[in-house]
From TrEMBL:
Keywords: Amino-acid biosynthesis, ATP-binding, Kinase, Lysine biosynthesis, Nucleotide-binding, Transferase
SUPFAM superfamilies: ACT-like, Carbamate kinase-like
Name this protein carries in UniProt: Aspartokinase
Catalyses which reaction(s): L-aspartate + ATP = 4-phospho-L-aspartate + ADP
Enzyme type, top EC level: transferase
Species this chain originates from: Photorhabdus thracensis
Length: 459
């Protein structure tokens, strides 16, 4: 750590603040977000999502649609922009730039109606962040700050996995030091979350909700003091308050617990967000831009007296694949073959259980790529079925109990399973991590299971 900070002594006190879609949804939301930025002199980089609803509209256009639908979506996009721009009284230069981007969207979506592609989708989708950042820069300027718009694609180099690209951290560090760092002393930088650029120059995206990840990556690349994630909920809760109204806010949580929560479905943070923060020990704060006074959650290295049970998360739309083959009996190498196929199809496996001739594994099918593609393609199923019989069960849900020392606690099983006596637990995964116990359950039972568990473990 000390070697990294000595490289960037001047950034040690800076904060990157990220505002999500609802925090830049309209003029009033943008103004509240600007209040937060202006209230803290340490905030030198602002990372934004597209205005709420924008990315969905852009994806709909990118998927190709008929002329009527297209006109309707374009109109909705224009309406969101105009509503902000009109109240801002934006300068002619910015107005022209926004119009140019709107014109681009129109042309690109006409192309998409003829033929769709992941490359085109990412290009179209990136316009949401380009527009929100232009408007927000203008707003900050009107409020008397020396803010500068910065195209993150100059520094966010990624691979070419469109829809869910992986950033190149080494390049990001070098380019951010060269192109971003020199500006931070005198200006406030406003830039896009979620988007990047691959080697050939095409725009890429980091997966739905990827702006959090961008902010954390910048925090790491420039060794900043903190990453602030401003969203529409005042922090991370013991479970989703929409499912359990009695859920409690967690004031302080350790990186590894929060990372488990994000991975297993807590929607507050993009699952990859915490990895850069963990790698370099930068604390992450999560709060609500509508209600900053309410405080939030600080995710950091360690907390005092970590509790046995920290949270319950829920991830819907899980698919279970059960692979059956007699070849597995006393054989070696079967799993290698299966996992090679899955990896060739870009599928990451979540949970896995095995018996003598069966392997069961779960896949996360929540639309986490920006291109909305289905994971279980015909090509994949055909390849798998040359090796084994494949059964697919859909509409399952993953309930994860997150906590500490879970695999070293006696009586844990009894506590959990007796509370859930009346439910069918399709698969159980426990023991790989000290921080979680995962249950795969029927989608219809999921909310009740979360409620029951929350009541028994937290209330
Ligand atoms: N605008 C993108 C999305 O809706 C990225 C983000 O919100 O972080 O997924
Ligand atoms: Mg978002």
């Amino acid at each position: 750590m000390s070697s990294v900070s000595s490289l960037f002594p001047e950034t040690g006190g800076y904060v990157v603040a990220k505002f999500g879609g609802t925090s830049v949804a309209n003029f009033d939301a943008m103004n509240s977000s600007a209040d937060i930025v202006l209230a803290n002199k340490e905030v030198r980089i602002v990372v934004l999502s597209a205005s709420a609803g924008m990315t969905n509209l852009l994806i709909a256009l990118a998927e190709g649609c008929d002329a009527d639908k297209r006109a309707d979506y374009l109109k909705q996009i224009q309406t969101i922009q105009d509503a902000i721009a009109d109240r801002l009284h934006i300068s002619d230069v910015i107005r022209q730039e926004i119009n140019r981007l709107l014109e681009n969207i129109k042309t690109l979506s006409e192309t998409a109606s003829l033929t769709t592609s992941d490359v085109l989708t990412d290009e179209i989708v990136s316009h949401g962040e380009l527009m929100s950042t232009l408007l927000f820069t203008e707003l900050l300027r009107q409020r008397g700050t020396d803010a500068e718009w910065f195209d993150i694609r100059k520094i966010m180099r990624t691979d070419d996995h469109f829809g869910r690209a992986e950033p190149n951290n080494t390049q990001l560090r070098i380019l951010a030091t060269e192109h971003l760092l020199p500006h931070l002393k005198n200006t406030l930088i406003v830039t896009q979350g979620f988007i990047g650029r691959e080697e050939k120059g095409c725009t890429t995206t980091l997966g739905r909700g990827g702006s959090d990840y961008t902010a954390a990556l910048l925090g790491e690349a420039l060794n900043l003091k903190r990453v602030d994630i401003w969203t529409d909920v005042p922090g991370i809760y013991t479970t989703d308050p929409r499912v359990v109204p009695a859920a409690q806010r967690i004031d302080k949580i350790a990186f590894d617990e929060a990372a488990e929560m994000a991975t297993f479905g807590a929607k507050v943070l993009h699952p990859a967000t915490l990895f850069p923060a963990i790698r370099c020990g930068i604390p992450v704060f999560v709060g609500s831009s509508k209600n900053p006074q309410a405080g939030g959650t600080l995710v950091c290295d360690t907390t005092e007296a970590p509790p046995r049970f920290r949270a319950i998360t829920l991830r819907r739309q899980q698919t279970l694949l059960t692979l059956h083959s007699l070849k597995m009996l006393h054989a070696q190498g079967f799993l290698v073959e299966i996992f090679t196929i899955l990896s060739r199809h870009n599928i990451s496996v979540d949970l896995i259980t095995t018996s003598e001739v069966n392997v069961a594994l779960t896949l996360d099918t929540t639309g986490s790529t920006s291109t909305n593609g289905s994971l279980l393609t015909n090509a994949l199923m055909t390849e798998l079925s040359t090796l084994c019989r494949v059964d697919v069960e859909e509409d399952l849900a993953l309930v994860a109990i997150i906590g500490n020392q879970l695999s070293q606690t006696s009586g844990l099983g009894k506590q959990v399973f007796s509370a859930l006596e009346r439910f069918n637990l399709r698969m159980i995964s426990h023991g790989a991590s000290n921080h979680n116990l995962c249950l795969l359950v029927q989608g219809n039972d999921a909310e009740q299971i979360v409620q029951t568990l929350h009541q028994c473990l937290f209330e």
